[in-house]
């Protein structure tokens, strides 16, 4: 008998982000460290006569339920590779990861669908195959196939696993400002040339002791005037004892890295006027 099955769809943060240059195809080459965290949406797969999606959660009215939705695109892409499927599924998304926060929620949802259907339909595609499928839908999606701690290059699809030992004992306090930042607008604001940037700093390999000063985010420079609240939150996190504080991706989430849980919890209380999450890295066996 077919059963309802649940799958988690974790968020990520960018530990530093350097945008190297604009590509001929309109995308940008970047250099960043992606860290999977335990903040997660939930996807519930129910056997159904036909595929459809439903969503619950804050601000979900902003999410389209048509063919433009990444969950739908992932489902259709996987389905197109099969002559027939054992059963269709209705997918219900319990949305926890804030929309437009730079935490990769939509990309994670898409990857979760690929991983789930691979299991439910017993296709047994390799992680490499799933990453290639994900890359057809979005630059961040391949990361979420394996998750963990990876260096991302190219448009985000060139992934190199990192030693996650340096993440043990760390906590990430996420502060979500009450505004969204458009990713396309963010990249346009950088006005990057087509030629690669020379002598950009390198984040990897990362080892103990961590040099937290390496992890710049190029978007912080251009957002300083437009969104001064980002700078204020960053300074407050640093003043509270964060090892590092910065913007995740192109925003709007600002996060602080702590190695003391009590300090992180007390700092979270200081940001009670904002939506906050206290998270930890995800470690895969």
* Secondary-structure element string: EEEHEHHHEEEHHHEEHE
Distance between the termini: 30 Å
CATH class of the largest domain: Alpha Beta
Percent of residues in helices comes to 25-40%
Q: How many domains is the backbone divided into?
A: 2
Number of helices: 8
Dominant shape: globular
The helix-and-strand class reads alpha+beta
Strand content: 25-35%
Q: Using the CA coordinates, give the radius of gyration.
A: 19 Å
CATH architecture designation of the largest domain: 2-Layer Sandwich
Q: Give the low-confidence spans.
A: none
Mean pLDDT: 89
The number of strands is: 10
Strand count, sense and closure of the main sheet? 6 strands, mixed
The CATH topology of the largest domain comes to Ribosomal Protein S5, domain 2
What would you say this structure looks like, in words?
- The chain has 285 residues and is of the alpha+beta class.
- The chain folds into two domains: 5-161, 2-Layer Sandwich (Ribosomal Protein S5, domain 2), CATH 3.30.230; 164-279, 2-Layer Sandwich (Alpha-Beta Plaits).
- The chain contains eight helices and ten strands.
- Strands 1, 2, 3, 4, 5 and 6 form a six-stranded mixed β-sheet that branches.
- Strand 3 (52-57), helix 1 and strand 4 (88-95) form a beta-alpha-beta unit.
- Helix 2 packs across helix 3.
- It is globular.
């Amino acid at each position: 008998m077919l059963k309802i099955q649940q799958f988690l769809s974790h968020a990520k943060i960018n530990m530093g982000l350097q945008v190297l240059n604009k590509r001929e195809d309109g995308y940008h080459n970047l250099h960043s460290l992606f860290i999977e965290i335990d903040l997660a949406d939930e996807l519930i797969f129910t056997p159904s006569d036909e595929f459809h999606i439903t969503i619950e959660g804050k601000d979900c009215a902003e999410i389209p339920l048509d063919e433009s939705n990444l969950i739908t695109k992932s489902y259709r892409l996987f389905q197109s590779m099969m002559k027939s499927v054992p059963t269709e599924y209705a997918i219900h998304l319990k949305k926890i990861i804030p929309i437009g926060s730079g935490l990769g929620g939509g990309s994670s949802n898409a990857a979760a669908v690929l991983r789930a259907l691979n299991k439910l339909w017993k296709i047994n595609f390799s992680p490499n195959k799933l990453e290639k499928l994900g890359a057809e839908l979005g630059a961040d999606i391949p990361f979420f196939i394996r998750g963990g701690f990876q260096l991302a290059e190219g448009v985000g699809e060139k992934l190199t696993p990192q030693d996650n030992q340096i993440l043990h004992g760390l906590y990430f306090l996420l502060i979500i400002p009450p505004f969204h930042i458009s990713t396309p607008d963010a990249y346009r604001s950088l006005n990057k040339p087509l030629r690669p940037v020379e002598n950009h700093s390198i984040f990897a390999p990362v080892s103990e002791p961590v040099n937290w000063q390496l992890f710049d985010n190029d978007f912080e420079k251009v957002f300083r005037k437009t969104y001064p609240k980002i700078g204020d939150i960053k300074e407050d996190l640093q003043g509270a004892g964060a090892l590092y504080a910065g913007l995740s991706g192109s925003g709007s989430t600002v996060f602080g890295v702590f190695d003391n849980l009590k300090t992180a919890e007390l700092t979270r209380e200081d940001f009670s006027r904002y939506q906050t999450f206290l998270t930890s890295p995800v470690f895969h066996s």
